[in-house]
Amino acid sequence: MHLGSRSLVVLIVVLAGCQAAPPPPRPAAKSAAVLAAEALQQGDAAKAAELYRSALMAEPGNVSLHYGLGVAASHLDRRSEAVREFTWVVERGDKNSSEAIAARRWLASVGAFPRSVVAAQATEEPNQDQDRAKQEPKAAPASVQGRALFDDTPGVLVPMERIQLLLSDYPNKIVYLRLRTDERGYYHFTNVPPGVYKLTDRVAGPPRWRLRVELKPGQDLSLDLNPANSTRVRDDFPEPIQSVGPTS
What we know:
Order of helices and strands: HHHHHHHHEEEEEEEEE
CATH class of the largest domain: Mainly Alpha
Structural class: alpha+beta
Radius of gyration: 27 Å
CATH superfamily of the largest domain: Tetratricopeptide repeat domain
Number of strands: 9
Strand content: 15-25%
Largest sheet: 4 strands, antiparallel
Shape: globular
CATH architecture of the largest domain: Alpha Horseshoe
Strand order of the largest sheet: 5-4-7-8
């Protein structure tokens, strides 16, 4: 091949390389706030709390981040941290926002409503208090009780003695009540604000039960937990399926 021909070939190769389609752009990295919300949705409250704290370092005035950290802390039974975060939301957020309303409900349910808010309400005009009472009548608390029986050994149904049960507000997930069954497997959640709840026996990991419970004002619901309504048969809050990437 002549020198000139070789030069043309090299030039064609170079031009072809220049004209080739650029590589696809890399997907944008998810922010700590987005990752925290995803972790909380997947039931990993510890990871969510860590990510929310990281996000708050960059945005310390973000109401949604304080609310999310409060939710994660309540799931981890870190009462003081949950009280701090929900109090921040109530005192600094829009009082009519869904976050502030849910935070007030949780604080009231654990007897930790902020004194500053109570004081502010006490200084309002009496007519305003009366109007609020008319608009927002206090609903009678509800309760749910029953017995937990399971067949960890096939064919042998036994009481679930001293197992932990959890009742969390849905979809806010912050009215978070926890108890243990007695020696015969009986349980009784009392003084529960009316609403929709998730009843389960695990914060993370495969649960025996994951049921949707709707409580009306003043209702005393009887709900036995057994293999017939366990996650093997019924799962009202199925976890999202994690996608698995291609393996080499």
